[in-house]
Amino acid sequence: MRDIPADHPRALSLRLRETIEHFRQQGLVAETGPIAHGRGEAFDYILGEATPELVKHDIYTAAALLLEARHPIISVNGNAAVLAPEALIELSRTIPAELEVNVFYGRTQDRERKIADYLISKGASKVLGVNPTAKIPRLTSSRGRVDKDGIAKADVVLIPLEDGDRTEALVAWGKKVISIDLNPLSRTALKANINICDNLIRAVPLLTSAVIELRQDPDRRRQLVDSCDNNLSICRVLQFMASRLVRFPFDHGLVRIQNADESHIDFIVTATQSCIEEGSLSHRQRKVVHEFMRDRLDKEGIFILVATFNGRPCGYGDGECRDDGTFYLARLVVAKPFRGMGIGSAILSKIEDIARSQGCHKIVLETLVSCRQAQALYSMHNFNPEGFLTKDGYKCDFIVMGKHL
Ligand code: PTJ
Question: Given the CA of residue 78, which atom of ligand 1 is nearest to it?
Fold first, then answer.
């Protein structure tokens, strides 16, 4: 294998790729093993290459299922065998559960033997699945051949990264299936009784620790087994992935929110103009708005926040503390290209912080009845409609919304 400098920022990822490729050349990993690995890597980026807390719950559920099983088995394919041999062997000893080679591609006795010998060279005392004789009912692929003392007999099967056909067939055969698959939308993940959406190399050691922890706790084990709901787990993982994607500009410091200064006034006027139904402001009106906002900058009790994206102003919010103890949010504007990224929400949250820090007990605002998007944003932040308002010069009514702090 090639030299990968230990201080390379992606040293582990490069080493794993090299491992997969090395063992593909040796005939342990399938020809398409590197493709499957790359698919996993892509999903791991979205997870942040760390095990999310919510996935740890699924790991505990899997550990409980393995401990409650009468005859648990760990199925091992080419990729799994070379990515985490020691961890899989450790898990098999800890549960205890036997290891069984089960591959999809190029299933020859030679390949089965190579994978089994490799696991034995890493410390496994016994590996099933070489030249097996039993068959999974209604599965035509070579994965259907299973060991009569292993998967055929098992009530719970752990299957790290593979295709969905076998998962479905095993479940139909009455087995409980635990999968480890980084892709929460794969058929394997969807059809399993519980999927662990995590990288195999992190999940297997965590699973071993969970098995050790749960061994002395039968009540918690049964509670975990009873509440096992793979659809809920999948939806929670998808939600987690989606939130990581949405939070990207914030987590990477692309969006910042700061107090407005003189240099932002031109942007504020232009952004305000883009929100005015009647169209553009005349040169004179623009000047009036410019002066109005300029004056607000220096007034006590008035707060103008500007959001920037990569240094460019992209939205603003301004409001003021009133004598009755309410905070009036006068405007909240996000420039068109930056809408839908959560910037309005971020400004609003900061405004709420300011209102609280100023001792205000409530935030109030008015928004056009026709502006459904703005109302949806305020509702999401728990603002409630409080009434309607007609203003001179506007074709449309305003809805008044408020939120107690
Ligand atoms: O050794 P064989 O012949 O049984 O073949 C093994 C592979 C993996 C090539 C075969 O099962 C296959 O083609 O799998 P798929 O259909 O590509 O599915 C692999 C799944 O595993 C994908 O959903 C990947 O996202 C996921 N995956 C890849 N690497 C990892 C992973 N999940 C967890 N940890 C990983 N390291």
Answer: 1
